[in-house]
Amino acid sequence: MLKLQYSKFTLECGTDEAGRGCLAGPVTAAAVILPSHFNNAILNDSKQLSANKRNHLKNIITQEAVGFGFAHIYPDEIDRINILNASILAMHQAITALPIKPEFIIVDGNKFKPCANIPYETIIKGDAKFLNIAAASVLAKTYRDAYMEKIHEEFPMYNWKQNKGYPTKEHREAIKLYGPTKYHRTSFKLLPEQLKMNL
């Protein structure tokens, strides 16, 4: 069973990102403050949940949270500042999008930068330990998936509806065949033999 939160502060927010390892699309982060009475037996790290469960939980989280925010950082910015900085920037933007300022932040992972003078703690595998980080992981994943499904309509040959921009064999084959799009991260190794290709 996941714990509600890490600190003794009433307004603690959990934050997490999705899409760090993708070749295309944004890196998306969410921040969530849950009420003190919140409880959910299904909620867990989004990677452990089916798409149906994630979408079901998204409705519960957005309805019951004290506040939530999310943010996309797009490929041009990822290429400019690198994926780690883009992930942290997405989390910062998600936190500042909260309707209420948190008193404490817990972050999934081990890298973060101070945000708005709010004390914070980084927690490895935090999305499998604390409900507010798990909730943020579900929102980040569902908002990002929805975005990838939308841009899939523009470039169906990459099948982003299915692979969500991750480096699947099929996605790499499509890049080889059609080349990269404006949604691809040019700073990423899009193809294993990219060095030999004149992209």
Automatic annotation (TrEMBL):
UniProt keywords, alphabetically: Cytoplasm, Endonuclease, Hydrolase, Manganese, Metal-binding, Nuclease
Pfam family, one: RNase_HII
Superkingdom of this protein's organism: Bacteria
Listed SUPFAM superfamilies: Ribonuclease H-like (SSF53098)
Molecular-function GO terms, alphabetical: RNA-DNA hybrid ribonuclease activity
Record has Nucleus as a keyword: no
Reaction it catalyzes: Endonucleolytic cleavage to 5'-phosphomonoester
This protein's record includes keyword Coiled coil: no
Domain RNase H type-2: 10-199
Enzyme Commission numbers on file: 3.1.26.4
PROSITE patterns: RNASE_H_2 (PS51975)
Binding annotation for a divalent metal cation: D16, E17, D108
Localization of this protein: Cytoplasm
Main location: cytoplasm
Similarity-based family: Belongs to the RNase HII family.
Protein name: Ribonuclease HII
